[in-house]
Amino acid sequence: xxxxxxxxxxxxxxxxxxxxxxxxxxxxxxxxxxxxxxxxxxxxxxxxxxxxxxxxxxxxxxxxxxxxxxxxxxxxxxxxxxxxxxxxxxxxxxxxxxxxxxxxxxxxxxxxxxxxxxxxxxxxxxxxxxxxxxxxxxxxxxxxxxxxxxxxxxxxxxxxxxxxxxxxxxxxxxxxxxxxxxxxxxxxxxxxxxxxxxxxxxxxxxxxxxxxxxxxxxxxxxxxxxxxxxxxxxxxxxxxxxxxxxxxxxxxxxxxxxxxxxxxxxxxxxxxxxxxxxxxxxxxxxxxxxxxxxxxxxxxxxxxxxx
Length: 307
Description:
The chain has helices spanning 27-38, 67-70, 79-91, 125-141, 177-187, 192-199, 215-227, 270-282; strands at residues 3-8, 16-21, 42-47, 60-62, 102-109, 112-117, 120-121, 147-151, 154-158, 169-170, 206-213, 236-241, 248-252, 260-267, 288-291, 296-298, 303-304. The chain has 307 residues and is an alpha+beta fold. The chain has 3 domains: 3-91, no CATH class; 102-199, no CATH class; 206-304, no CATH class.
């Protein structure tokens, strides 16, 4: 998997901290790593999905005090004391239960990853559709080899092949993805015909349905999936980060006359859903791949800033 190596200037060895995440290697993870490197540690931040390009092999060398110049404008002043507090926790020997650092949703679509912060976060299929729609459209605008991380109030372009050119950050965040689409098209001077083609993209989402029936039985099946730690999230995750989130969800028929469906994961490609189904069958679940149905998720865990 791809990884970034943060270390103090002139020091290529020493105590090592390994951070592994499916949510990209920039933003909070990158800033935390830079803070630790400034304090003399070797820090490796590894992507466990392998879609975000690595920085150059020599890693990031930090001169004393230089970390402040690396902190993106999206990390508002109010977050900086929290990062310092988190660093103190990482460097201590005490162990604590994991808790959410932020609440919202995260999606990874090709070379585009999107993070949106919400006051109350619970899995919502419409959020998955929105992230896939605009993630695919924005991805279609990027130069080959470029990757874009969209979060809070800005987007950051990354490439180890120079694909981003002079573009590093774009003043358009995840709160308004149509605006981010327009900003990306403008910054990269995308031809109008290509912009129109990208805007028309509407990805088909797939899931694995393992049950359809009564609400009571559907909720029981969902609980069984969680108890066995079965299933995969796919490209989209919503809830508290890094708190544990369930892979199975119960969808109620939009007209309230049909069955309650238990679905597991949300995928951009049918083959990915089929691979997830193989894993579910290995744990005793039946089912089949279908497009993500309409409906409202019920009995979802809510994550808020209060815990």
